[in-house]
Input
Amino acid sequence: MEWINFEDMPDFIAEIESILEREGLSVSEEEVWEVARVFPCVPLFQNIYIELVFMRLESLCESYNLSCNYQVNCLASSFSIEGEEFYTKYDYYDRIRESA
Output
């Protein structure tokens, strides 16, 4: 999706994308546009993309009975699993191992 400025993304988004790719999941351009069309003015496409990525990871976490929280905004988006901040894909895999 070359029309999204990935330079404005938090570094850990690439880590989440790696997890999603391994699970056969992704966020499509069509999904981002579907959400964007609801807004009365031009939204921040990066925020829409981040939110959709977070929603996919949240679903994966819930499949392992892990709780997560996230916040999306243009200044500082964050994602936590079981109360621990997410920074790398290893944070995710560590939480899964701990929950088993």
Remarks:
- The chain has four helices and three strands.
- The beta strands are 68-71, 78-81, 84-85.
